[in-house]
Design brief:
Layout (H helix, E strand, L loop, with lengths): L3 H9 L15 H11 L3 H4 L4 E4 L11 H4 L2 E3 L5 E3 L8 E3 L18 H4 L2 H7 L4 E7 L2 H8 L1 H10 L1 H23 L6 E5 L12 H7 L1 H13 L3 E5 L8 H6 L4 E3 L8 H8 L4 E6 L4 H4 L2 H14 L6 E5 L9 H12 L4
Helix pairs in contact: 7-8, 9-11, 15-16
């Protein structure tokens, strides 16, 4: 019998596997409703072939106001709003000026971050295990503020380079530590580069500031036999070739509202695995279960042809998606005969 790990490895190798793999991520309200239908252990109930974890943070991804209060600072010193329905928002940058003088980056080897990793790796044997190792540009925007950081790209490029260099070193050291803690198959980076219509900066600026950092991160992953997974929302067509050049294996979540995903498959599908593609801004929110099932069937057929595709929503499922539509998508994704 083929294991989940082998299923994903064959998919990444652009082999026909007879069934398209899938993955789902849920915000807390969406997870509660899905659990009411499938049970509390969603990974087992949905037979997810990909299993994910991350080093812990003093600010959990989803921090409830009831537990943490209305605001919470993370280990970088960024203050976040907390929320019942999503991850909240960064509302207090920790770098008021374009300089690092006097700022101390957190310790990537802090014990609280890593206590669960070895046990998790051992407990997920047979599945395709991916560990989120951090964020780069996205983290820089949290620390400085998006508007100020984009201004810095033009007016203070040396600061931007220094900030991204230090964040890259933080990620690289995190990876080195993780490689010594347990066996797993891939590393993931969350690093939004796109708006609905294009990059947040000029492609040449992205190539100057971000591409060399990704080359280091993905290079270390490949040296250690790991695959690479990138989450970036928005339209990033102009840099997909660059991402392939520096060693990206899996691009997530390929939002169909922002890009022509079938064209992506035609142009890059023999060199890259795509993960995502189910429309979350329109179909899952306002479509019927029958329409959702039909779209899942189409994506499995068109995007899954020749391997290199993992079906998933175009973003983490949020509170606005009706349960019937989530169930339709999940059940259709899990079907092995379609």
């Amino acid at each position: 019998m083929t294991t989940d790990r082998e299923w994903i490895e064959r998919t990444l190798g652009h082999e026909e596997t007879g069934a398209v793999p899938y993955n789902f991520m849920f915000s807390p309200p969406a997870a509660r409703r899905v659990k009411s239908h499938y049970g509390d252990d969603l990974e087992a109930a949905l037979a997810l072939p990909i299993r994910m974890t991350a080093p812990d943070s003093v600010k959990p991804l989803y921090a409830s106001p009831q537990e943490f209060g209305d605001t919470l600072a993370d280990e970088f010193g960024v203050v976040w709003s907390t929320s019942e329905i999503d991850r909240g928002a960064p509302i207090g940058p920790c770098l008021d000026e374009p300089m690092l003088l006097g700022y101390s980056f957190p310790d990537p080897g802090a014990a609280y971050r890593l206590a669960h990793i070895a046990e998790w790796c051992a407990g997920q044997v047979g599945h395709y295990r991916i560990i989120w190792v951090g964020d780069l540009w996205e983290r820089a925007t949290f620390m400085r503020g998006m508007g100020d950081l984009l201004t810095d790209v033009a007016l203070h490029p040396a600061f931007v380079e220094a900030l991204l260099y230090n964040l890259t070193e933080y990620i690289l050291e995190t990876m080195r530590i993780l490689f010594g803690l347990g066996d797993f198959e891939g590393v993931a980076l969350s690093d939004d580069y796109g708006t609905q219509k294009g990059l947040v900066m000029a492609p040449d600026s992205w190539r100057r500031f971000i591409k060399p950092c990704l080359a280091k991160i993905y290079g270390l992953a490949k040296e250690n036999g790991r695959s690479t997974f990138l989450h970036s929302c928005g339209n990033i067509v102009s840099i997909i070739g660059d991402l392939i050049d520096v060693g990206l294996d899996i691009l997530h979540p390929i939002q169909p509202e922002a890009m022509d995903i079938l064209e992506l498959k035609r142009e890059f599908g023999n060199r890259l695995t795509f993960c995502g593609g189910v429309a979350t801004q329109t179909l899952l929110v306002s479509g019927t279960p029958e329409e959702v099932r039909g779209e899942v069937q189409r994506l499995k057929r068109e995007m899954g042809r020749g391997g290199g595709y993992i079906l998933e929503p175009g973003i983490t499922l949020q509170d606005d998606v009706p349960l019937d539509n989530m169930v339709a998508m999940i059940d259709e994704a899990m079907r092995r005969d379609a």
